Amino acid sequence: MASRENLNELYKRFLQNECSPEDIRLLTELFGDADNDTLHAIVQKQLNDPFAITPHGSDYSERYDRILNNLRLQLKPEKRVIKLWPKIGVAASIIFLIGIGSYIFLRQPASHPFIARHTQPTEIKPGSDKAYLTLSDGQSIYLTQQRSGIIGNDGGKDIVKSPDEKIEYVDRHGLHNSQNIAFNTLRTPNGGHYKLVLADGTKVWLNAASQLKYPANFRYLKERKIELSGEAYFEVAKDARHPFIVQTDDQQIKVLGTHFNVNAYHDDGGSKTTLLEGSIRAATLKEQALIKPGQQVVSDLNGVLKVQDTDTEFAVAWKNDQFMFESEPVKPLMKSIARWYDVEVIYSKDAPDVRFNGAISKFENISAVLKILEKTGKIHFELSGRKVYVTK
Fold this sequence. Notes:
By secondary structure, the chain is of the alpha+beta class. Helix content is 23%, strand content 35%. The protein is built from eight helices and 26 strands. The two termini are 36 Å apart. InterPro entries: FecR, FecR_C, Ferrdict_sens_TM. Keywords: Membrane, Transmembrane, Transmembrane helix.
């Protein structure tokens, strides 16, 4: 078991930029050996002192804030975020916060978790806030190139881009009274994600390679219906008189006000909806089901629904800037990586069927991520341009 005094001292020296490479190596080992209470105490101490850690330059400010907020949620005693591996979850949080490098916790059957560290440069950077907004008249706006402020208007609403890369719809002071329904479409490419606040106040996080079609104004509509392909996380504004409906290729989700995640990529063979708060009703052409918090409903291409209990943190990890996986086969895992880094994955005939457990920060460059995955010792990745070759 790691010495709490040694760990605290090394951690303090690291934050003061006084650690040698050997000190950092020892600090990493101590994180891996420390008990959960020790790790919890260290993280909590830093959260209570916001000046103890500062971002390394302005480019890291938003990343730092998101990580800090996620940590505060994880350390609430009434809700342990990572149920399966509480120690690993806290240890990973410490490492993400202090920025030592790139880490993953891999667990082979009948073996112990271990920490791998890599700082090698990479050819391909992670995704970022990128999206295209198409208005009802066909005008397309590349949001990344827009400055903050009003970037357009549609359906009686001004469309505003905020400094933190988010768009929202606000009233135009009653200047527009038309009852014509104006539909907008927000699309993220591979390597992009974006945040959106709909006209009713519903918050949406759109994952990479996804598309959301929605009314610019819900004023004259009996229901708030939107269409999704890809993946999105919703925090729906409550309105008992106007149900909120998400339509995918094979599943319709109906809610009044709740938090949930929908994974509906065309190439994944069905939709998965995971509920975090409230209740939802999922339906296909064949059947329907009522879903409770902590459950996930999966629909296949035949319209059959399957309801199962799930750890919701895995479903929303992407929204919290992580890849998280439990016994995940290599091909589904690499689909997520391909979308985020905008690469093509090519498998050799002898590519092994390896399964992974763990978490990786989405801020890492792709070569660091691939090197970490290789630490299983059973798989190899070769990066050439924007292609990733998977071999034994």
